[in-house]
Write a structure and sequence with these properties.
The protein is an alpha/beta fold. The chain has ten helices and five strands; from the N terminus they run ααααααββααβαββα. The chain has two domains: about 70 residues, DNA polymerase, domain 1, CATH 1.10.150.20; about 150 residues, Cytidine Deaminase, domain 2 (3-Layer(aba) Sandwich), CATH 3.40.140. Helix content is about 45%, strand content about 10%. The protein is elongated and about 65 Å long.
Length: about 240
């Protein structure tokens, strides 16, 4: 278990709240991501905390870190993809369930079953599903339609402090729109091995030249999200 000393009590409590309780947890996340998670959780931390995390992870005294190693760590922080503290799993699954309901509506209309919702302050402010076939418009993916609805409701095309839940990993078009809307967090269900732009084919969210605001989390209610797609395409093949 991580303990104090050497970790300061407030830092230790924050780590525990993030589910980082052991050295294995710390190594699994890495010192840089752990440092950024502490910042995202609202803890005031300095680079000395990063040095301490790296020393613990590497099982060396903090004084043994060289200036060159510290500079590499600083650059890693600068170049790291956006990090956020995501809601508890039951809350994410609850919002994903609403996105799944949208996906099922799409399937009933003959659209590829993908659904999305936009959440702000714990409340759903927009919900949409794919409508490319009915609109004869390739841009009418669930995410794009949900962003448009939310923008209209908030009277702002920037959706800062909003989260988007979508049943399928965003494509490059939707990933770009989510990033440009400055959505805070994106949660998706099933991976998309052919067109996914959150890591399956490319990862636009990890490119800090493009993305400085939006954190990504996948695999929430993954089996249910996969099932609605599999059932749809199985029915099409009959």
């Amino acid at each position: 278990m991580l303990a104090t000393p050497p970790i300061a009590p407030k830092t230790l409590a924050a780590l525990h709240s993030l589910g980082i309780r052991t050295l294995a947890d710390l190594r699994g996340h890495g010192s840089v991501k752990t440092f950024l998670l502490l910042k995202a959780a609202g803890l005031t931390v300095t680079f000395s905390t990063l040095w301490q995390l790296e020393a613990l992870s590497s099982d060396i005294p903090v004084g043994d870190l060289s200036d060159a190693q510290k500079e590499i760590l600083k650059q890693s922080v600068k170049n790291h993809a956006p990090v956020a503290v995501f809601p508890a799993l039951p809350e994410m699954e609850r919002f994903m369930q609403t996105a799944l309901e949208q996906a099922k509506q799409a399937a009933a209309l003959g659209e590829i079953p993908v659904g999305a919702v936009v959440v702000k302050n714990g409340e759903i402010i927009a919900a949409a599903h794919n409508a490319c076939v009915s609109s004869c418009n390739i841009s009418q993916h669930a995410e794009i339609r949900a962003l448009s609805q939310a923008g209209g409701m908030l009277q702002n095309y920037r959706l800062e402090n909003c989260d988007v839940y979508v049943t399928l990993e965003p494509c490059s078009m939707c990933a770009s729109a989510l990033i440009q809307a400055r959505v805070k967090r994106v949660v998706y269900g099933a991976a998309e091995p052919k067109t996914g732009a959150a890591g399956s084919v490319v990862n636009l969210f990890a490119d800090t030249r493009l993305n400085k605001h939006t954190a990504i989390c996948g695999g929430i209610s993954e089996q249910a999200c996969q099932a609605v797609l599999q059932d749809f395409f199985a029915a099409k093949r009959r």
